């Protein structure tokens, strides 16, 4: 009997998810032993046409990382959905858009106007890249950019979600082992739509820092107060920490080295809008009742939109700024 | 759109005060525009910013949050919580291009039907001036059909 | 008749990069274009964010070298606040960075670039991979490579909090205080890394240099371009990855300029072409003369070899020996042959490992004094580090609250975009004659590429180096008449 087929693909991503998979070290060998790796650009070569030629649903498991930024990304998402039985949105980019999703605060035109006119760019003729361009010898094409970045689930149906930027290697190994156990009849798949490779509570629940429900009268930026008290909750020291709304699974890595949780594991279980939940959490530590005093304290969070939607903008209820889509 | 633009506004109102104020305004035949659809909450402290996001994403042009006057909340100080959330929410929405004027917090006691009606009238005018928000219906644009439930005989 | 050949994809898959080769009437190469088909817009969407977020946001430009962005961003943010971090903070950042360098150079040499040499460029494609390397040099080496990667990542994790996308550098220093126990652990791993680097250099000598065919390939003309070379150097003009001034030497090896980070705009400019999303940097004071080499063309290279060419040597003793040996073998400085980049990479691997131990044994490394609170008004700042794939420049301007108003990034691989375009073009011209194309072309184009260790993760998202290729040959009616594929398992 032939082994089940495995695929992994990246779209608009940084490659860190692939590195995280490679960092499972020995687990890679388990993948190799239990699967027929049919498509995995980083590890082996197979062509797009080869995937197209496969029978529908012939790949058992596809891990997809990266958001959907170009028409090409979108095309591949549809293709791999068709060919796969289980499609996993792997990593923050695929599940929620991640940092590149912050591009949804601007229009594509605006992104071009910035990128091709920076201080070091010499561009007197106002040249911007063109999807189709005629050079003397013929025609060249590059894929056009979509107006906003989308998550995988906004484009195709997704079976499981694996959060993290990137997912921690021990979590990746656990997921791979689970699938192998399922193959051997020793375990069952989680229900469709489940979040895998992460916990069900918040980073705060995993965090060893002490919370004594102290209220704060000012927010600080980390460089204004570092080094922080190593024992106390960072948020209660007045430094924005996204732990309260962020899904557990990383063992509260960043707070354990003196840095804030920036929210890379995405919304905690049951959170419909990540930013909205953080607004609630941050509002509840503020010790003030007078509007002017509250506003003064809030001035300490200079970029609330970036703070609350750093990773999750593309997956939020609003998804993009009016600048990205209006007119 | 040469017709006068009629904004859709969602009002999240506290059951104990402003919802009654609205009621009162109704019975007393105080006139106010019909653009506000009221959603009754037990207290303004129940107002989750998620509701506001949902309303705006779902097509509302503006949102009104109402609660009992400071110091008069039936659950002691929940309206202060609402105030803090509201102020932070408004800043966050600004970063998404949503004008501060589209989301408003109003204190109104059960007896202040007239005051509430005035506030509503004012808000409707302000939002009319801002124009429609027309947030894209991302979900209706969803390009995919859900796949049948998983049947992986693995 | 113009034939068009598309080598697609660069990133081992459709879309993340491709080369179009156009043939003329005689079937010779008329021109070739190497395109980058994606832009993510960091320079736009970082505007409005607080400057202290940059070490975290720009990490996500590239998961292959997030450490480089983390460092460049932290240094640019220091500069924005005019704050000088305490010595221990700098030591910790640099220590993290050395462990990263050792890991990254190892991955590239063994898994990506090295197979061409160790297994041999003529070997069947199916063997030119890490497994082929293991067959050739023994099973034990596979374990060592994995070990090296683990040690590197562990060190990055201890100091940076995470293996990928470190989290601890902030304006004015770092948030992590190293314990003595952690320090010892890191020192031991560093000592092991030195042995590993020495072993790697020996393996390179035994297998590659001892073989005349390979040596000929290195010194041959196919991959030679006489360009300017760029690299960061310390006060003694020794190679430095974390700090110093950028030095550029001309094609004869003479110093052309040396600039501090904040002076980069006087020296570097970028050109936009309408057929690709990526820009082409060049030396402003020489000017853009197209995709051509020589003293009159502003094209420069920024790779391990460039850093060595642009420096007067290495700051650690054994790396200095290896440096001297390399130049003695290849006939002195500068070396123009692109394939020597692989050798230079091993010299740097040794330096990174030696310096790793130097830093880990510095008496101040465990000091709790890891941060200076900035007190001056934030304005503008430039941070430069050497990413493994070239000089990395971050330039920020902020308002008086430290909120970004302008961001300019010139990332590692981008520096080499013009040279890569030239190298692939040259390989194509050499290997396509009279309309005849064979798999040799693919090998050579691929090797030309790989030497640069191109990581268009910076611009798109390819992992470095490995590039299965496919050439499609179209006749004049656009019909596909031939497809040549190369599989790299
Ligand atoms: S989720 Fe993070 S690590 Fe993964 S591809 Fe996206 S940016 Fe990179
Ligand atoms: S807010 Fe941050 S520091 Fe505080 S408990 Fe949560 S994760 Fe830990
Ligand atoms: S602490 Fe937060 S930012 Fe850090 S790894 Fe965990 S989820 Fe990600
Ligand atoms: S009960 Fe009215 S605001 Fe709390």
Key words describing this protein structure:
heterotrimer; A: 327 residues; alpha/beta; Rossmann fold; 3 domains; 5-stranded parallel beta sheet; two-stranded antiparallel sheet; 14 helices; 32% helix; 14% strand; globular; B: 154 residues; 4-stranded parallel beta sheet; 4 strands; disordered C terminus; binds iron/sulfur cluster; binds FE2/S2 (inorganic) cluster
Query: Tell me, what's the shape of chain C?
Result: globular
In percent, how much strand structure appears in the residues of chain B?
5-15%
Largest sheet of chain B: 4 strands, parallel
Bound molecules: iron/sulfur cluster, FE2/S2 (inorganic) cluster
**Order of strands across the biggest sheet of chain B?**
2-1-3-4
Radius of gyration of chain C: 22 Å
Number of domains of chain B: 1
How many strands of chain B? 4
Architecture of chain B in CATH?
A: 3-Layer(aba) Sandwich
Distance between the termini of chain C: 36 Å
Major sheet of chain C, described briefly? 5 strands, antiparallel
H/E series of chain B, N to C? EHEHEHEH
Shape of chain B: globular
What's the number of helices of chain C?
Answer: 14
What are the secondary-structure elements of chain C, in order, as H or E?
EEEHHHHHHEEHHEEEEEEHHHEEEHHHEE
Name the largest protein-protein interface in this structure. Answer: A-C, 82 and 101 residues
Topology (elements, then pairings):
The complex is a heterotrimer of chains A (327), B (154) and C (489).
Chain A: E1 5-10, H1 16-22, H2 26-34, E2 36-39, H3 48-53, E3 59-65, E4 68-70, H4 71-83, E5 84-90, H5 91-96, H6 108-115, E6 121-122, E7 132-135, E8 138-141, E9 145-150, E10 160-162, H7 169-183, H8 203-206, H9 222-225, H10 253-256, H11 274-285, H12 291-298, H13 304-309, H14 322-325
Parallel strand pairs in A: 1-2, 1-3, 3-5, 5-10
Antiparallel strand pairs in A: 4-9, 7-8
Helix pairs in contact in A: 2-7
Chain B: E1 9-14, H1 18-27, E2 36-41, H2 49-57, E3 62-67, H3 78-95, E4 103-107, H4 113-130
Parallel strand pairs in B: 1-2, 1-3, 3-4
Helix pairs in contact in B: 1-4
Chain C: E1 3-7, E2 18-23, E3 29-35, H1 42-45, H2 54-57, H3 66-80, H4 87-118, H5 130-137, H6 139-160, E4 169-170, E5 173-174, H7 180-209, H8 212-219, E6 228-233, E7 245-249, E8 255-259, E9 268-271, E10 280-283, E11 300-301, H9 304-310, H10 317-330, H11 341-360, E12 380-387, E13 390-398, E14 404-410, H12 412-415, H13 417-431, H14 439-451, E15 470-474, E16 480-485
Parallel strand pairs in C: 6-11
Antiparallel strand pairs in C: 1-2, 1-15, 2-3, 4-5, 6-7, 7-8, 9-10, 12-13, 13-14, 15-16
Helix pairs in contact in C: 4-5, 4-6, 4-7, 4-11, 5-6, 6-7, 7-11, 9-11, 10-11, 13-14
The structure holds iron/sulfur cluster (SF4) (3 copies) and FE2/S2 (inorganic) cluster (FES).
One iron/sulfur cluster binds at residues 203-204, 207, 209, 211, 233-235, 241, 243-244, 252, 255, 261 of chain A.
